[in-house]
Amino acid sequence: MAQLPLQPPPRAAPSPAAREAERSDSALGQAQKLYNTGKYDEAAAAATKAIEAREWDERWWILKTRAQLARGKVAEAQKSYEEGLDRFLRSVQMRLVGYDVYRAAGDPVAAEQSLDDVRSLAGQSPRRYGDADSRVTIGRALLLSGADARQVLELFFDTAKKLDPASAAPHIAAGELALSKEDYALAGESYQEAAKRAPDDPDIYFGLARAFHDNSEKANAALERALTINPRHVDSLLFQIDNAIDREAYEQAEQLIAKVLEIDPHRGEAHAYRAVLAHLRGDRKAEESHRNLALGAWKTNPAIDSLIGTTISQKYRFFEGSTYQRVALKFDPQYRPAKVQLCQDLLRLGQEDEGWKLAAVVFKEDPYNVVAYNLNTLHDHLATFAALDGDGFVVRMDKREADIYGPRAVELIKSARDTLSKKYDVTLTDQVVIEIFPQQKDFAIRTFGLPGGDGYLGVCFGPVVTVNSPASRMARPVNWEAVVWHEFCHAVTLAKTRNKMPRWLSEGISVYEERQRNGAWGQSMNPRYREMILAEGGDDTGDKDEKAALTPVSKLSGAFLQPPTPMHLQFAYYESSMVIEYVVEKWGMSALQAALMDLGNDVPINDALAKHTEPIEKLDESFAAWIKDKAKNLAPGMDWSRPELSLDADSAAMAAWNKDHPNSFWGLLGEGRALLAERKFAEAKAPLTKLVGLYPSYAEAGGPYVLIAAAHRELGETDAERAMLEKHISLNADAVEPRVRLIEIAAAAKDWKSVKALADDVLAINPLIPAPHRYLAQAATALSDRPAAIRAHKTLLMMDPLDAADHHYQLASLLAAEQQLPEARREVVRSLEEAPRFRAAHQLLLEIADKMETPAPATQPASTEVAK
Description:
The protein is an all-alpha fold.
């Protein structure tokens, strides 16, 4: 047997104090600092000098090799690695570096052999590799070889944390593992612990940026910290490239790609992103050229095609994205990131059989993958949903909700399909699937693969639409019909453009079409939006504390990616819809249609708009002037200055301020609210009525109409209260309580037609509350609309009412009147089961029984021909 070269004895783990001293003062620590700050050539030179001085420490060879890899000097890195391995043949740390070296060199077989060597060495001499650094290294190698993630975490990374509490390495490794499973909470905790131990490591802050996937403010701060430490940190620059592509800042993406390639000319991800940009502009030849550069020496690298496909799918081009994932899986059938992404692509394309099967496969292979676990759990829950077939679409929803408002949803979607398909000249060839979720977490998992997305009401991927049901919005109801209309509009416009449209345009058209359907739907100018528009121009009417929000048309997609506040995201929807309104108003619907056609043919959005409206720079200017003019002319007699008073100022203080600002929006509203709080109802009407006169279109929750109505109600002025509430609901599509109050008023006046119309309005906001169904039953009965009354009572019985016996009785009476005697008998028996002494139900049962026993009179055939 050949004898192994003499090895140095294993190093004992240094104490925390010694580790800190080494990090800051030693030659190795200084060289590592050069590497961490992006001075890769200097770090490699320092390592070379130490090696020539015969420093007996494997970390010099590892540092030199990694520094050369960072600069794309693969051949030199391979030479350095192999020289180091000759000296440290039993080093698992050196062997793991070989995995990266050989992959960069396009030799995946040698890379896998490096992992085998790590496992073999660890198995041969487990006591030799008992220190923290070795445990982390072996754990990483095992994960790359497909080992059980939880066992690696517990047996290697957690053990390493105990062996060396001062080391950041096991926390970094745990963070990497959590990110690979999309467990962002654990990843965030791990990287934060790592940052406490190694505050100058840019890799840690890059990991934090990825972990904060749903918190853009924290993610940006972490990424900025990484790039402050190391402006040449390639992983962070690649992360910025991905974000730039997402917000359609393609010029910035190109600049960042150039910066990466200046550092490492062979970095595959940078060339892959160039392939993405070529794809987005429809340049297939350049796309293939950049893909080949990305693959480099390793022509079957699955990571490259998976990255290209994932980035394309982020632009809602799921078919093209799924094609790239299939290529990746052809290269490596076990490449899990491609499997997970392909699974989600297929589900978003409506190819559900294959998508759900793939989710099950991934979960079986990797039960710790969060997305796979979530999807498989959701699949079981979706199996309990009802499926309502429409003409070219299917609605899936909770069975109880389907019974309550399913037919209404189907009719609404039919109307949306007919109206919008005709308007945009689209024939929907694929079946559209609309899934309505009563639990927000299920909606988020179906939509994003993970919980979260609390601000989303619905999402459309093209042939698949996911929507939060009214049950998930009980505390803050939103008109569900408006949401469904909005999302189905996406299905139409995405079909027209073959999913090749920027988010701002898609959202803008859908909000615009909400307003076209119902003037109270969508969004309209309000005081907050006015301030946000005028703040950019520095007008003295703008709120000094409000961040400017108006974005040039040419850069509108960026407004959706990382808005500074939720209000800015909401404003992005509004501004986008106003761009559509401006284009249609000035150039007509035909210009918008033509731009959409161009998008489907790979014409960039700014070029398409310029072609059918005006040069994009001019459009930026003209739209900004147009919307600022609208902002300035919102309630032109209104004074928009704010009182320098506390929010709980009394009416006397507000009135004193209003003497000098008699037309102040905030002053009049504040005085009215203060007077109501002080129960000075008659006095409250004056400032609020003046406000309504100056700004009649303002009808947000807590606005002047509902406040005046409250004053009238307290004063017993019911007709005046009704008039104010009717004005409010004509402008506010989401107001449930004002509509319910109007129903009460109309019912007391026996105005049953109004009761029926208002109840129908409430059902468009939230069909899952009993009150509108109860009033609808009363109104339908009074109007002799027995079918509507029957539906209302049946719906109420699904809601487990306290007065179930009466609803069964009323339903039985209605069914008997419709000559549906067997069903009427069943209902009256159910009424007696609830209330055995219900005398009216006993009498009705006798009447129904008598009718059922009396034979129907015989009828003669109209002619012998018919009789035959």
